[in-house]
Structures are given as structure tokens and as C-alpha cells.
Amino acid sequence: MYETHFLPWLIIVVTVLAAPLVRADAVSALNDRATTTPTHSPALTLVELTDLALQRNPQTRLAWAALRFSEAGIELARAGYWPKIDATLSAQRNRALNFSGLPSNSLTRYGASISLSYLLWDFGIRSGQVDQARFEMASAQLSQNQTIQNVILQVEQAYYGVLGLQAVVEANQQSLRDAETHFTAVQDRKASGLATVGDIYNIEAARAGVKLALQQSEGQLAVVRGQLATAVGDSPDTLLPLAAWEEEVTPLMPSQSVASLLASARDARPELLAAKAREQAAAANITVIRGRGLPSLSLAATTGRTQVVDIGNSTQYNALLSLNIPLFTGFGDRAALKQAQAQLDTAHATHDDLRAGVELQVWQAWQNLRTASVTVDTSAAQLKSAQQAMEVSSARYKSGLNTILDLLNAQTTLANARVQQVQARLDWVAGRAALGHAVGGLAPVTTMESP
User: Fold this and answer.
1) Considering only CA atoms, which of 148, 155, 156, 150 is closest in space to residue 231?
2) What's the CA angle centered on 254, arms 6 and 159, to 5 degrees?
3) Order of all β-strands in the sheet with 84-97
4) Are 369 and 304 within 8 A, CB to CB?
5) Of 89, 116, 348, 415, which has the highest C-beta tally within 10 A?
6) Domain of 184?
7) What are phi and psi of 227, to 5 degrees?
8) Does residue 159 share a domain with residue 222?
9) Of 328, 348, 382, which marks where a domain is finished?
């Protein structure tokens, strides 16, 4: 019943894994904990980083191990439908003493036997165990798909976080260069008697503030670099060379309505489907518990041959058909049934709680993306206006028409506008990834429309 839900994500996984392999020199650099700057190493794309993460991230290995464990569980449950056959080899030597203490005759015997036991019929114990194992494997498969999506999102967020903070660092470096230029201009005016000591103090404080912002952004960049390296299964101190930031960001919203996305998430999120599978596994466990308190029919058979040295041999045959009727187990079956019902209720509540959380994720991701889509153009217009205002304010200050406060205000506005533009672009790409993860997959960008 889950094959239709597996297909879209299997396509995604196969597409990612079939993407161009990471260049050999890049892989070597990663394995050797490269510490060179990106200008000395091949730049890694998002697809290449995702490929590395799917191969090396411990979370994916854990998911694969859980899946193999569940597959073995099905084989173990199916074993109940097969008879059990045992072979026995025996050898014996007997020697006894008579009442006078003299030895009597001794006997040496040896033989072989084969025994068979077969459960012919029960009230759904074996079928319930197989159904439970199947649902648990389905849950493991879906959980594996969710793990893959989580790893992909983790890589995406860290990747765009690094690129965004790199752009913030560059913006702060440009603001620092502007501050140095203005500091020089104020010093010149002070030497000419056109500026006061207060102007020098103000411009120095502004320059120190820009330096502080630069240092903070560099520290944040180092943290996110470590997160990205960890996401791809490497040490946090590994410096990954990344492909350049997108020059143009086109904020296109999904063509689906938010109601349609909510419905898609209910049907496509692997963790929701996995919770449903666990709920069905708990229901199958109730069938198993109930079957243990009902009669069962079993067959047991044994055949063997014994050889007694110097005497002869004999062949034995034995068959037993037994009907087992449980009468009283100290109320253990009733307690086990209550536990199984409680587990089913827990699984049902867990599924409902998870569904509510997924719907909230979709709603929040949609609203965040919608906000980000309008702030990209707004931030670009703000930056353009701030640059023009800075040029005018700088020229007017040099001409003595503006005060130092006017210049500092324009400088601060420009610095903030640079950072806000970077943040708007980062919010857009991160929001697009978050919405795709929340829904369980979005339509291609070519099918999207402007808001």
C-alpha cells in the first residue's frame, strides 16, 4: 500500500545519487582534511555536497542498518510457517558389575534419529507476526526516506548559510573600507580646521562598530562551516571549497495553494507514513496477542535407528498430533492484550500529533517563503537608495553642507542595507528548501508562478 508514496522519493534519491560524482581531487582534499582556501581547491556544488553526505553521514548509515534489521524481521516471522527438523547422533557404552564385584557383559550402542515438529494451525499468531513485521519494515523504509530528506535539508541549510555569511563578511568588509575612507576625510577636514575633535571621535566609534560587525560575521561563518563539514560526514575543522553564490535570485512562489501543499504533505511526508505503518504494526500485534490465548494444532514426528554391537539393530517410528488449548495463564494474556491496546492508542496519538506538527511546518514555511519573496526586491531597492544617499551625503559633507552625524547615518544605513539584501536572498533560498522539506517535495521551479 506504500509503493505509490515511495516512488517520488526513490526518484529524488536516484537523481541525487546519479548526479555527477565529486571530482577525485575534491574527494582527496576532503579525506585529507584540507585546510587550503577555496581558491586553491575545486569548488563543490550543492549536488556534490549532497552526494557526499548521503554516502558518509552517520544518520544515513543508521537508517540503512534499521532497514536491514526490519527485513530480517520478516524472514524471522515467516520461519513460523516452516517445520523444524533436528538430527541427533548418539553413542553409548554400558558396563555393570554383578553382586560379586566381577564385571558382567558390556553393551555398545549407537544410532541416529530425525525429529520433526510442525505447527499446523493457530488463530492468527503467525499471520499477525508476519503482518507486524511487514508494517515495521514499511516504517523503516519510510523512516529511511525521511532521514535522507533530513540530511539533504541539513546540507542545503548549511550550504546556503555559508554562502550567505560569506556575502555578509564581504559586505562588512566593504563597509569597513567605506568607514576608513570617511575617517580619512574627517581627518583632512580636521587638519583644515573644518571638523572638530568630536567629529573624529564619532567617526572612530562608527569605524569600531563596523569592525565589530565584521568580526562577529566571521565568527558566525566559522560555525556554519563546521556545521556543513559535519553534515557531509567530515570533521568540523575541514574547510570545504564551495561554488559561488547565485548572482540572481528569482523569488517564484509555488503554483500550488497552501491548502494543496498541506494535503500533499499529509500524503507525501515519509515520517507521517512511517507513523501510520507503526500504528498498523501495533494493530497486528493485538491479533498476535489474542491468538496466543486460543487453541493450536501441532504435529511432532521422530524416526531413528539404533545399532547394538554383537546383538542387532532396531528402528523406531513415532508420530504425535496434539491440540493445545490454553485454559489459564494467570491473567497474563489479558494483561498483554491491554498493553498491546495501549501501544495502539499511543501509535494513533503519535501519528495525529506528528500530522499536526507537519501541517504547522508547512504553514510556517509557506508564510516565511511568501515574506522572503517580497523582501528580495525590496532589499535590492533599499540598497540602491542607500548607495545613492551615501554618495550624496559624502559629497555634501566634503562641501561642508552636511554634518558628521548626517554622514554617519548614511554610512550606517548603507551597511545595514548591504546585510539586509544578503539576508533577504538567504531567507529566500533557505525558505524554498524548508518548504520543499515540509511538503515532502515541491514542483520544479519552471512550474512556479510569481506571487
Assistant:
1) 155
2) 75
3) 84-97, 103-121, 296-308, 312-324
4) no
5) 415
6) 3-81+123-293+331-447
7) -65, -40
8) yes
9) 328
| 335 shares a domain with 318 | no
Q: Please tell me whether residues 410 and 263 are part of one structural domain.
A: yes
**182 CB-near residues (< 8 Å, 6+ apart):** 203, 206, 207, 394, 407, 411
Q: Is 190 contained in some domain?
A: yes
Residues 208 and 313 in one domain: no
Asked if residue 88 and residue 165 are part of one domain, the reply reads no
Cell numbers found for residue 351: 501519528
The one-letter amino acid code at 311 reads I
- Measured distance CA(261)–CA(221) in Å, rounded: 33
Coil, helix or strand at residue 115: strand
C-alpha cell at 171: 559586505
Q: In the predicted model, what is the mean pLDDT of residues 268-275?
A: 91
Report how far residue 207's alpha carbon sits from residue 185's, in angstroms, rounded to the nearest whole number.
13
354 and 392, same domain (yes or no):
yes
99 belongs to a structural domain: no
In the chain, the number of structural domains is 2
DSSP 65-107: HHHHHHHHHHHHHHGGGS-EEEEEEEEEEEEEE-TTS-EEEEE
Strand partners for 79:
none
pLDDT digits (tens, 9 = 90+) for 2-32: 333 333 333 333 333 333 333 333 333 333 4
Contact 163, 247 (CB under 8 A): no
0.90 surpassed by pTM? no
Q: Cα 263 from chain centroid? A: 22
The C-alpha cell 501543499 sits at 261
Question: How does pLDDT run across 145-182, given as a tens digit for each residue?
Answer: 889 999 999 999 999 899 889 989 998 999 899 888 88
* d(C-alpha 228, C-alpha 161), whole Å: 9
- First-last CA distance in the chain: 37
- What CA–CA distance (Å, rounded) separates 199 from 404? 6
Find out whether 161 and 217 touch, Cβ atoms under 8 Å: no
- Chain centre to alpha carbon of residue 151: 4
261 plus 298 within the same structural domain:
no
The pLDDT tens digits of the residues spanning 355-368 come to: 999 999 999 999 99
DSSP string, 318-331: EEEEEEE-----TT
Rounded to an integer, the average pLDDT of 300-320 is: 87
Distances (CA, A) of 110 to 157, 200, 297, 308: 72, 109, 33, 7
Residues 286 and 174 in one domain: yes
Contact 146, 361 (CB under 8 A): no
